[in-house]
């Protein structure tokens, strides 16, 4: 642990959340960079958020529902609104996200920055709320070029297992001497590993499993954002969970580990899980200036 003074914040009820340098939460077994923070919110803060969410209208999809705040993105990936995030989505979550900094003990000044320091708006400006009833999921996908490549996901009410796979085009072009960014290609297919790295030596796809507890925060950025797909299996129970299959095992709460072990690696999905995904949309246009002047900012 670093001997730096951690950031501490209090909820209205006096419950305390203490955050250390971001490096303390790195998921070491994953490519750069992913961080997992358990107990990012207090139980009271979680309950308050769920109450706010339930009072707002949902957009209904085939198997789940969502809420975009402060507005949905356009088909071209722009945020068209004159509004900021509502206060209940800004505090305390955005406040704490902006507190997170890289290890200040390192000599390189780049590591003194926060996760949104160099993003266009220096903070997240969009939240997508998703509802996942037991047995539902989402196909492997990437977030694409509409956002600054940092994703912060808060989980509420229930656990979920996020499955992360390398993008196929990363390996299909790996033998080429020229390198190019993979984030420009949008795909929903999973990937096979290059020769010598296959599971069981049979060319099967690699799947990194990240167990997301209620009230936790998962941050993905850099290679984990641009070079990997992420999805959630549509199952009623997550199976095969262990210290060797769960990438963030060492960062999980002890009670969670005990539950997994007592269930022989199986945890049922018995409650609706809510996710709040915080991102910085690159192009924002003020709806009030849509028909006059330059509205992008």
Automatic annotation (TrEMBL):
The GO molecular function terms of this record are: dioxygenase activity; metal ion binding
Give me the Gene Ontology terms describing cellular component.
nucleus
Stretch list, region Disordered? 170-203
**Top-rank lineage group of the source organism:** Eukaryota
Annotated keywords: Dioxygenase, Iron, Metal-binding, Nucleus, Oxidoreductase
Name all Fe2OG dioxygenase domain ranges: 123-282
Residue stretches of biased makeup (Low complexity): 172-203
Q: What is this protein called?
A: Fe2OG dioxygenase domain-containing protein
């Amino acid at each position: 642990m670093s001997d730096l003074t951690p950031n501490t914040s209090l909820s209205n009820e006096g419950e305390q959340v203490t955050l250390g340098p971001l490096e303390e939460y790195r998921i070491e077994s994953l490519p750069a960079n992913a961080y997992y923070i358990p107990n990012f919110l207090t139980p009271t803060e979680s309950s308050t958020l769920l109450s706010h969410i339930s009072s707002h209208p949902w957009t209904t999809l085939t198997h789940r529902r969502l809420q975009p705040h402060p507005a949905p993105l356009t088909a071209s990936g722009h945020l068209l609104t004159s509004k900021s995030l509502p206060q209940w989505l800004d505090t305390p979550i955005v406040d704490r996200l902006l507190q997170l900094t890289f290890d200040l003990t390192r000599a390189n000044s780049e590591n003194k920055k926060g996760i949104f320091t160099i993003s266009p708006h220096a903070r997240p400006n969009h939240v997508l709320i998703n509802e996942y009833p037991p047995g539902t999921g989402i196909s492997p996908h990437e977030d694409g070029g509409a956002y600054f490549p940092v994703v912060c996901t808060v989980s509420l009410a229930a656990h979920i297992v996020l499955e992360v796979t390398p993008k196929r085009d990363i390996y299909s072009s790996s033998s080429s001497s020229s390198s190019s960014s993979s984030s420009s290609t949008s795909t929903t297919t999973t990937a096979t590993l290059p020769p010598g790295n296959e599971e069981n030596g049979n060319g099967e796809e690699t799947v990194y499993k990240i167990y997301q507890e209620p009230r936790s925060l998962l941050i993905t950025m850099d290679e984990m954002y641009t070079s990997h797909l992420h999805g959630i299996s549509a199952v009623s129970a997550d199976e095969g969970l262990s210290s060797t299959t769960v990438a963030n095992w060492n960062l999980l709460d002890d009670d969670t580990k005990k539950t997994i072990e007592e269930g022989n690696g199986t945890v049922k999905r018995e409650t609706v899980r809510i996710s709040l995904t915080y991102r910085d949309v690159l192009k924002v246009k003020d709806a009030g200036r849509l028909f006059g002047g330059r509205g992008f900012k």
